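Quick one, probably user error.
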């Protein structure tokens, strides 16, 4: 089950509205520092632009770990917030959206600015290469040594990732499994292990 999507690379789009140029740039970011690096890069690339407005979101949509926005001199609420609204109304995260504006000499008014910044962001987002972020569960599997190879193959077949391992009187594998694959994997572990394989879901860390 996909939780949301995140960029695999950057994208650009340019819109002209009444001689004003709006250049949209979207790129991945994992935190505010990386988002500000994207903004700084845009400022460096377009040093003569009147406005470099932006917004970024990180973490799970609806419960972001970090986000922010800026109007960069445009009337309050006409640039940064519309950019942010586009991001918030799509199942995306871990990205920064920058919209560079070159003023064309004709004032657009508050409504016109909101529409232009929103449209630029939305169109840029449509061009952005995205990948799914899938909900995953932590699973701890204890098994006898002779079953290790077959259980490892079984985990990998269900797109699981094996992390730390412990070797004592038995083998303990710490795994990360896509949530929608977990029921089938648990059933197969029970069948293939014939009672010798013990699996439990790890307690979530507080």
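Nope, works fine. Designed sequence:
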């Amino acid at each position: 089950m996909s939780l949301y999507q995140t960029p695999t690379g950057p994208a650009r789009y340019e819109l002209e509205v009444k001689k004003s140029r709006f250049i949209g740039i979207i790129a991945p970011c994992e935190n505010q520092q990386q988002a500000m690096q994207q903004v700084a890069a845009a400022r460096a690339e377009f040093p003569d632009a009147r406005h470099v407005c932006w917004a970024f979101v990180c973490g799970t949509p609806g419960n972001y770990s970090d986000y922010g926005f800026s109007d960069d001199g445009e009337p309050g609420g006409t640039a940064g917030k519309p950019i942010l609204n586009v991001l918030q109304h799509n199942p995306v995260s871990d990205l920064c959206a920058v919209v560079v504006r070159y003023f064309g000499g004709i004032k657009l008014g508050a409504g016109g600015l909101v529409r232009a910044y929103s449209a630029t962001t939305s169109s840029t987002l449509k061009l952005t290469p995205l990948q799914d972020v899938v909900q995953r569960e932590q699973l701890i599997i204890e098994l006898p040594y002779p079953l290790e190879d077959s259980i490892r193959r079984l985990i990998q077949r269900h797109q699981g990732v094996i992390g730390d391992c412990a070797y004592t009187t038995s083998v303990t594998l710490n795994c990360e499994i896509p949530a929608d694959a977990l029921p089938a994997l648990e059933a197969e572990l029970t069948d293939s292990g014939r009672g010798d394989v013990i699996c439990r879901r790890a307690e979530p860390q507080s």
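The helical segments are 32-45, 80-88, 109-127, 148-157, 182-193.
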